[in-house]
Design brief:
InterPro entries: DUF4302. There is one protein chain. By secondary structure, the chain is of the alpha+beta class. It contains nine helices and 26 strands. It has a nine-stranded antiparallel sheet with strand order 4-3-2-1-9-8-7-6-5, with helices on both faces. Strands 18, 19, 20, 21, 22, 23, 24, 25 and 26 form a nine-stranded antiparallel sheet that branches.
Length: 436
């Protein structure tokens, strides 16, 4: 009993000493407002310390890739900004603020031409969906702030943005110039991602490279930001047990991950016919000759009767139904009051040579496409691409021309047996088919 009493006396003494500890008193001496004020001041000190500012790897929606944004913060709540999009000779200065809202918030709360490029719902280069843009944020939660990096999270869209300090004496114009030159060196549209000797055909669109695993039909998107050395992915990717997060440029056009030589990125320059069938290309009504426009005009009454409009249309290979995988054909979106409906008429093709292709149609499509064919008279829209002879669809043969085989921005189609039937497709999506 005496031993038990002594034990309780000993524990009580420890608890009493702990309760009187000055460190514990200090912890509770600081009010909530004091702790918030310290966090805000600490964040501002970190932001304003680097002599030449920070490089922000800015992502709106990761599906559009990341971009370099250079930022120099001053003590008077002003930030000067430059970016690879605006070019090496453009800067813009505006107001910023740091405040508390369930943690520290960094806000770019005054119009800034460079930042608003990513948040504008009507992106000037038509990146993203019109009306939504690239889904960029202007308010960020500060998840981590230290002298070597700052990690932000978009308050509205939750996209992760990383900032690292620029090395002392970094010239902004030279930095952006190096990034732009590196991006120019990789302006191929088609790549092979080689993982442990197995190749996956991949397509580049802006700052994203995507490919589909033929076994699982799963799509992998490599969203990246360009650096002076190569490209850095939004997050590490693991395929077939191999993890990779960046590719370093090589003069032999074999880009490798800095830490994993089992993964290689190689550009491919196939004939224009192969480039066409491996991607989806877009067009507007104005891209067709009068011969093709008359068929598109035939679907206008049906669209009007349903209160709908064609907002986007393309030709090539597109993934509409994951269960069926990517399909080659005519893809378009019909938009009405209740929503947007993606339609696809399945075409066949035969590559005849480096610059000729035949296109066929067997009267099939996805559910939406066949619904509009039967209820809105949309089927004539296939006739610029295939002929209708005695109520049977007959292949048309086209000759293809482009501006740049390495990085084509458009392809012009001319029917071999009917030179009046021409149309042009582009890599950039067209919004509002009939208005353009």
């Amino acid at each position: 009993m005496k031993k038990i009493f002594n034990l309780f006396t000993f524990l009580a003494a420890i608890l009493l000493a702990t309760a009187c500890s000055p460190e514990v008193d200090d912890l509770f001496d600081k009010s909530s407002s004091q702790r918030i004020s310290e966090a805000i001041n600490n964040t501002k000190d970190i932001l304003t310390t680097p002599a030449d500012g920070w490089v922000m790897h800015y992502y709106g929606s990761p599906m559009y890739g990341g971009y370099n944004v250079l930022c120099k913060f001053d003590k008077n709540d002003r930030v000067t900004v430059a970016s690879e999009v605006a070019g090496k000779d453009s800067t813009f200065t505006s107001h910023y603020k740091i405040e508390q809202s369930q943690g520290v918030i960094l806000s770019f709360d005054e119009y800034n031409d460079i930042f608003h490029y990513f948040s504008d719902p009507h992106n000037p280069d038509k990146n993203g969906v019109d009306g939504k843009g690239m889904l960029g944020d202007l308010e960020f939660r500060v998840m981590k702030a230290s002298a070597d990096s700052i990690i932000l999270k978009g308050k509205k869209h939750n996209n992760r943005v990383v900032m690292v300090p620029l090395k002392k004496s970094t010239n902004w114009a030279s930095y952006i110039d190096a990034v732009q030159k590196r991006f120019a060196s990789m302006k191929y549209n088609i790549y092979e991602v080689v993982i442990k000797g197995k190749s996956y055909r991949a397509l580049r669109s802006h700052h994203t490279i995507s490919f589909t695993n033929p076994d699982s039909q799963d799509e992998t998107r490599l969203n990246f930001v360009v650096t002076a050395k190569g490209i850095k992915l939004y997050k590490p990717v693991t395929i077939a047990g191999e993890t990779f997060s960046e590719f370093i440029y090589s003069d032999d056009d074999k880009w490798v991950d800095a830490n994993n030589k089992n993964v290689v990125l190689k550009p491919v320059v196939p004939p224009i016919t192969e480039q066409f069938v491996s991607a989806n290309w877009y067009f507007a009504f104005s891209n067709f000759s009068a011969y093709g426009q008359r068929f598109w005009n035939m679907i206008k009454p049906g669209a009007a009767s349903m209160g709908e409009n064609i907002i986007s249309a393309g030709l090539g290979t597109e993934l509409i139904n994951k269960n069926k995988g990517p399909q080659f054909g005519l893809t378009f979106a019909s938009k009405g009051g209740e929503g947007t409906y993606w339609c696809q008429y399945y075409f066949t093709y035969k590559i005849i040579g480096a610059d000729q292709i035949s296109i066929g149609f067997e009267g099939k499509g996805n559910g939406n496409a066949m619904y509009y064919a039967n209820n809105a008279g949309y089927l004539p829209c296939v006739l610029p691409f295939v002929n209708n002879v005695n109520k049977k669809f007959v292949d048309r043969v086209f000759k293809l021309e482009t501006d740049n085989l390495k990085n084509p921005t458009y392809i012009k189609f001319t029917e071999v047996d009917n030179s009046e039937n021409t149309f042009t497709v582009t890599r950039n999506k067209v919004v509002d088919f009939f208005a353009n």
